[in-house]
Write a sequence for this structure.
C-alpha cells in the first residue's frame, strides 16, 4: 500500500481547491475546480489500481487521534472503493456541466461543489461512526446552497424541504450512534460491524438508522423531497444528487443496518419489501404522467432505488451484488440522463416535454447518447442497468417470488415511461421551431457524455471489473447475515430418490451385492440433499 | 488554612475589584475623554485575571485547598473554567464597545468600569459555596447589568430594556431569596456542603419548595422557559455590545451557578430537580425555536437562539453526572464563541448613514455586498443550529452523549428532534443572505478590531475547532470532576 495516504490526499485536494475557489474570479474558479476534480479522479484511479483484490478487508487504513470522543480513521473496503470511484468520476463531469450554465457567483458555486466532493469521499472512507456522521450531515449544507442559490424559480421551497427533511431523518441516528458507542465501547466501524447488539435494542437502533437512510435513499413514502430538489437544482446539482447523494442511503444500509443489526434487519425485511414494491409500482406510474423531464427521471430514481433495497434485504450474494451494481449503474445512468436534460435545457430553457420533439433530426448525436442512456435505464442487456437489475431480481427471487413479480413489473413500467419520454422528445414531428433549430452537441458536451457512455457499456459487458473488488466484502457480509437469512420460498426441494429407477426390472438372480451398493449410495445422496435443503 | 491563603484564592476578584475602583476614580476625575484608555486598562486587567485563574484551570484544582472563608468561596477548577470564559467574553465586549458608542456619541468612561464590576459579580457567582455568596455575586453583576442595559442616553428602547431588566430581575431575585430563606429554614444552613448533608436523608416539603424557588430564580437568570420573557426585549433594546455581554458572561455564570447548586447543594436530591430541569430544557428548546421563526430583528432572533441553546445546556445538567457537567462546560465554551462571533458580525453591518442594521430584511443578499461577513455569519448560524461540520455540533454532541450515558435516551431523542425546528430559522438567515436579491442597505467599512475578533471566532467555529476537542474535553472533565470532589 505504500506510505502515500491516498484517502487523506483525496480529502485534502478538494479542500484546498474549495478554499482557493472562494477567492477567484469566474473563469479561474472554473479552471481550478476542473483541475482539482481531475487530480482527484487520477487519485481515485490510483486508489482502484492499487487496491489489493482479495487482500485485507480494510485497505488504505489511516488513523490519527485528532479528536476527543472519535478519531480521524479512514479506510475502505471494495464497496466503499467503487462508490468513491463513482463519485470522483462524476465530479469533473459536473464541473463541465456547469461551465456555461452558471454565471453568477461562480467561485462560491465551484467551492460548494468541491466541498461536496470532500464530504462525499469522507462519508465513504470514514471508519469512525461519528466521523461518518459528520461527513454525512455536513453534505446537506453545500447542497442547500447549490439548490438555493442557483436553482430554478421555486428553489427556496425545494432547498428548505431538502434540508429539513433529510435533517429530521438523520438526527435520531446520532442518538442511536451515541447509544451504540456507549454500549460497545468503541466508535470504530469495523468492530461495530461484528458487534452483536441485544436483539430487542437492535429494533430501535435499526429504526433510527432506517429513518435516516430511507429519507436519503429515498424510499416511498419519504421520497417527496427528491422530485422538488431535482427539478429546482441546477443540472450539475441534479447529477450529483442522483449520482452520488442517493447512494449514501444504500451505502448506509449495507455498511450499518445489515451488518450491525442483522436480527432487526431480518425482522423488518417485510417492511422494506412492502415499501419497495409500492415504490416500484407507484413511482413508475407517477413517472409515466410527468410533463417535466427532470421530475420524470427523479421518480424513476425512486423506482430504481427500490430495486436496490429489495436486493439488499434479500440477504444473499446475488441480491447484495446486484444492489451494489444497480447503485453504481444508476449513478452513471441517471446522472447522464440529467446531463441529457441539461443539454437541451441550456438551449431552450424549459424542461417541458411537450416543447420538444423530433430532436433526432437536428441533434442526431445527442439522440444516440440519449438512446443509450434510456436503454441503460430500462435495463437492456449489454448496458450496466441489466446486470444490476438481473442480479438483484435473481437475489430476491430466491426469497420471494411475489416480490420478484411485482418488482419485475416495475421494470416493464420503467421501459414504458422511458421509451415514452424518448419518443416524445426525440422522435415524432418537430413541433416547435426553436426546438428544431437547436444545434447538436458541442465539444464540451461530448466530453461530458462520452466517458459516462463508455463506463455504462463497460459495466454492462464486463461487470467483473466492478464486482471483483466487492466480492470478498459481500461474501463477508453474506456470512454475517447467514444466521438470519430467510427461508427461500422458491428453493428447489430435493426429495429422496428411489433406490432404483422406476422402470428397473429387479433381477433376483443378479448381482445382489451391486444392488445393495447402489441403494446405499442413493441413501447417502438423499441424506446430503436433505441436509442441504435443511 | 490561614488568611493569606484565602486572599491568594480570591486574588482575581481582588485584582478586579481594586482596579475597578481605581478606574472609577480615574473616570471621575478625568471624565469621558479617558474612555478609551480606561477600556484598554480594563481589558488588560481581565487579561491578567485570565492568567491568574489559569493554573487552577489547567490542574483542575479541587478539594479543601480550594475553599476559602469557611467554604463560602470556592476557587476550584470548575470556577476557573467558567471564569476563564467570563473574562474572555469581558475582554471581547470591551473591544467591540468603543467604536459602537463613539459612532453614536455615547461613549462614556463608565462603560468599562461597569463591565469590570459585572465581571466581578459573575466571577463571584461561579465561585460561590454559600447561598449568601451566591446572592452577593448575583446582585453585583445584575446591578451593573441594569445600568449597562440602559446605557444609551436618549434611546427609548435602551431605557425600556434597562427598566424591564431591572423590574423582572428584581422579581427573580425576590423569588431566589424566598427560596433561599426556605432552604435555610428547613436545613438550618446556607452552606452548600451542609445543605447537601442536611438533604441527604430526606427532603422535607418546605425544603423542596425552597429548592424549586431557588431553581426558578436561577432559571430567570439563564433565561430558561418559562422564565425567558424578558430576554428578547432586553436583547433587542440594549446597545449591541451590551447585548453581547448579556449573552455571554452573565449567561455562563448563571449556568455554571445552576450546575453547582444543583449538583452540589441539591446533589443528593437529583430526582427532585431533574424533572424540573428536563421540563425547562425541552420547553426552552421548543419555545426558543418556535419563537424565533417569526422574528425579523436579528438581535431578537439571537435572543431566542440563546433560549434555545440554554435548553440544550440543561440537557447536560439533567444527566447529573460528571460527564454531564463537563458537557455543559464544553457547550458553554463553544456557545460563548458562537454568540460573540454572531454579535460582532451584526455590529459590523451598517447602512449608508452609518446607523446599525438589525433587521433581517436589510441583510438580504449580503453575500454579494459583504461576502466574508456573510460567509462567517452563515457559519455562525449553522453552528448555532448545531449542524456538522461546524464546531457548534460538538457542543450538542457532548451534551447528548452525556444524556445517553445517563440513560436519558428519550430526553436526548426529543431534544435532538426539536433541534430540527431550530434549524429552520437559522437556515432562514442563511437564505436571506445568500438566496435573496440584494437589499443594498449594508455599506461602509468595518473596524480592524472587529475583524480580528470576528476572524478569530470564525476559526474556532469552523471545522478547525474540532482540533480543540481534546484539550477542551480534558479541561472540562477536570473542572467537572472538581465539582464532585467536595471540600
Amino acid at each position: 500500500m505504500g506510505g502515500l495516504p491516498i484517502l487523506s490526499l483525496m480529502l485534502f485536494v478538494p479542500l484546498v481547491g474549495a478554499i482557493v475557489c472562494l477567492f477567484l474570479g469566474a473563469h479561474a474558479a472554473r479552471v481550478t475546480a476542473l483541475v482539482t476534480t481531475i487530480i482527484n479522479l487520477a487519485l481515485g484511479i490510483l486508489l482502484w489500481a492499487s487496491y489489493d483484490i482479495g487482500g485485507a478487508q480494510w485497505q488504505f487504513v489511516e488513523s490519527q487521534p485528532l479528536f476527543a470522543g472519535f478519531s480521524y480513521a479512514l479506510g475502505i473496503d471494495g464497496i466503499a472503493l467503487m462508490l468513491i470511484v463513482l463519485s470522483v468520476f462524476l465530479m469533473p463531469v459536473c464541473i463541465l456541466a456547469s461551465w456555461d450554465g452558471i454565471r453568477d457567483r461562480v467561485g462560491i458555486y465551484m467551492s460548494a461543489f468541491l466541498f461536496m466532493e470532500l464530504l462525499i469521499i469522507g462519508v465513504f472512507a470514514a471508519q469512525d461512526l461519528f466521523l461518518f456522521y459528520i461527513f454525512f450531515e455536513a453534505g446537506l449544507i453545500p447542497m442547500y446552497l447549490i439548490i438555493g442559490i442557483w436553482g430554478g424559480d421555486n428553489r427556496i421551497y425545494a432547498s428548505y424541504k431538502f434540508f429539513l427533511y433529510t435533517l429530521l431523518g438523520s438526527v435520531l441516528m446520532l442518538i442511536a450512534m451515541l447509544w451504540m458507542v456507549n454500549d460497545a465501547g468503541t466508535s470504530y466501524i469495523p468492530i461495530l460491524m461484528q458487534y452483536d447488539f441485544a436483539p430487542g435494542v437492535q429494533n430501535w437502533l435499526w429504526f433510527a438508522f432506517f429513518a435516516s437512510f430511507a429519507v436519503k435513499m429515498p424510499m416511498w413514502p419519504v421520497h417527496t423531497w427528491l422530485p422538488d430538489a431535482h427539478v429546482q437544482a441546477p443540472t450539475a446539482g441534479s447529477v450529483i444528487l442522483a449520482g452520488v447523494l442517493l447512494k449514501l442511503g444504500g451505502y448506509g444500509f449495507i455498511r450499518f443496518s445489515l451488518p450491525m443489526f442483522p436480527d432487526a434487519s431480518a425482522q423488518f425485511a417485510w417492511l422494506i419489501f412492502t415499501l419497495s414494491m409500492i415504490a416500484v409500482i407507484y413511482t413508475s406510474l407517477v413517472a409515466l404522467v410527468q410533463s417535466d423531464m427532470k421530475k420524470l427521471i427523479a421518480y424513476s430514481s425512486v423506482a430504481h432505488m427500490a430495486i436496490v433495497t429489495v436486493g439488499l434485504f434479500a440477504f444473499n450474494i446475488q441480491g447484495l451484488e446486484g444492489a451494489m451494481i444497480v447503485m453504481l449503474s444508476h449513478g452513471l445512468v441517471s446522472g447522464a440522463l440529467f446531463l441529457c436534460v441539461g443539454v437541451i435545457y441550456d438551449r431552450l430553457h424549459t424542461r417541458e416535454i411537450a416543447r420538444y420533439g423530433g430532436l433526432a433530426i437536428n441533434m442526431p448525436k445527442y439522440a444516440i447518447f440519449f438512446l443509450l442512456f434510456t436503454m441503460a435505464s430500462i435495463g437492456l442487456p449489454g448496458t450496466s442497468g441489466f446486470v444490476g437489475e438481473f442480479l438483484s431480481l435473481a437475489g430476491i427471487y430466491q426469497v420471494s417470488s411475489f416480490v420478484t413479480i411485482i418488482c419485475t413489473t416495475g421494470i416493464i413500467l420503467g421501459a414504458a415511461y422511458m421509451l415514452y419520454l424518448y419518443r416524445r422528445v426525440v422522435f415524432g414531428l418537430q413541433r416547435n421551431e426553436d426546438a428544431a433549430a437547436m444545434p447538436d452537441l458541442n465539444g464540451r458536451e461530448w466530453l461530458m457524455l462520452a466517458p459516462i457512455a463508455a463506463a455504462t457499456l463497460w459495466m454492462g459487458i464486463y461487470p467483473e471489473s466492478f464486482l471483483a473488488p466487492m466480492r470478498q466484502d459481500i461474501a463477508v457480509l453474506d456470512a454475517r447475515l447467514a444466521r438470519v437469512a430467510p427461508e427461500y420460498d422458491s428453493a428447489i426441494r430435493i426429495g429422496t430418490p428411489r433406490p432404483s429407477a422406476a422402470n428397473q426390472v429387479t433381477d433376483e438372480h443378479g448381482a445382489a451385492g451391486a444392488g445393495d451398493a447402489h441403494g446405499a449410495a442413493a441413501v447417502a445422496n438423499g441424506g446430503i440433499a436433505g441436509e442441504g435443503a435443511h | 488554612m490561614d488568611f493569606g491563603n484565602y486572599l491568594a484564592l480570591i486574588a482575581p476578584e481582588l485584582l478586579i475589584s481594586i482596579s475597578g475602583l481605581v478606574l472609577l476614580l480615574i473616570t471621575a476625575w478625568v471624565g469621558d475623554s479617558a474612555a478609551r484608555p480606561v477600556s484598554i486598562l480594563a481589558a488588560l486587567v481581565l487579561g491578567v485575571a485570565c492568567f491568574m485563574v489559569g493554573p487552577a484551570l489547567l490542574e483542575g484544582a479541587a478539594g479543601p485547598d480550594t475553599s476559602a472563608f469557611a467554604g463560602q468561596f470556592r476557587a476550584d477548577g470548575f470556577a476557573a473554567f467558567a471564569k476563564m470564559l467570563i473574562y474572555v467574553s469581558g475582554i471581547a465586549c470591551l473591544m467591540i464597545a468603543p467604536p459602537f458608542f463613539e459612532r453614536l456619541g455615547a461613549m462614556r468612561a463608565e462603560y468599562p468600569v461597569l463591565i469590570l464590576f459585572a465581571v466581578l459579580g459573575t466571577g463571584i457567582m461561579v465561585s460561590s459555596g454559600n447561598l449568601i455568596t451566591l446572592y452577593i455575586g448575583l446582585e453585583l453583576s445584575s446591578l451593573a447589568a441594569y445600568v449597562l442595559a440602559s446605557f444609551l442616553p436618549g434611546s427609548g428602547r435602551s431605557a425600556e430594556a434597562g427598566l424591564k431588566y431591572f423590574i423582572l430581575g428584581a422579581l427573580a431575585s425576590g423569588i431566589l431569596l424566598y427560596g433561599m430563606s426556605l432552604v435555610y429554614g428547613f436545613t438550618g444552613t446556607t452552606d452548600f456542603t451542609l445543605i447537601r448533608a442536611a438533604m441527604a436523608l430526606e427532603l422535607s416539603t418546605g425544603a423542596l419548595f425552597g429548592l424549586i424557588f431557588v431553581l426558578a430564580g436561577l432559571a430567570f437568570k439563564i433565561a430558561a422557559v418559562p422564565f425567558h420573557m424578558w430576554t428578547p426585549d432586553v436583547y433587542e433594546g440594549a446597545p449591541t455590545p451590551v447585548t453581547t455581554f448579556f449573552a455571554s458572561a452573565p449567561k455562563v455564570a448563571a449556568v455554571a451557578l445552576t450546575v453547582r447548586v444543583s449538583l452540589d447543594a441539591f446533589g443528593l436530591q437529583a430526582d427532585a430537580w431533574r424533572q424540573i430541569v428536563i421540563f425547562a430544557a425541552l420547553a426552552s428548546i421548543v419555545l426558543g425555536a418556535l419563537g424565533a421563526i417569526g422574528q425579523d430583528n436579528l438581535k431578537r432572533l439571537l435572543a431566542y437562539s440563546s433560549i434555545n441553546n440554554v435548553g440544550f445546556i440543561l440537557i447536560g445538567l439533567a444527566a447529573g453526572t460528571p460527564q454531564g457537567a463537563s458537557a455543559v462546560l464544553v457547550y458553554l465554551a463553544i456557545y460563548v464563541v458562537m454568540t460573540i462571533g454572531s454579535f460582532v458580525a451584526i455590529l459590523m453591518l451598517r447602512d449608508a448613514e452609518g446607523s446599525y442594521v438589525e433587521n433581517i430584511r436589510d441583510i438580504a443578499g449580503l453575500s454579494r455586498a459583504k461576502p466574508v461577513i456573510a460567509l462567517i455569519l452563515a457559519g455562525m448560524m449553522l453552528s448555532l443550529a448545531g449542524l456538522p461540520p461546524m464546531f457548534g455540533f460538538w457542543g450538542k454532541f457532548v451534551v447528548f452523549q452525556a444524556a445517553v450515558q445517563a440513560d436519558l435516551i428519550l430526553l436526548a431523542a426529543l431534544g435532538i428532534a426539536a433541534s430540527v425546528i431550530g434549524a429552520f430559522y437559522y437556515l432562514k438567515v442563511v437564505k436571506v443572505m445568500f438566496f435573496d436579491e440584494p437589499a443594498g442597505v449594508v455599506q461602509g467599512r468595518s473596524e480592524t478590531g472587529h475583524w480580528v475578533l470576528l476572524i478569530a471566532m470564525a476559526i474556532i467555529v469552523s471545522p478547525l475547532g474540532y482540533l480543540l476537542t481534546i484539550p477542551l474535553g480534558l479541561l472540562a472533565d477536570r473542572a467537572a470532576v472538581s465539582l464532585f470532589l467536595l471540600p
Notes: Chain A has 23 helices and two strands.
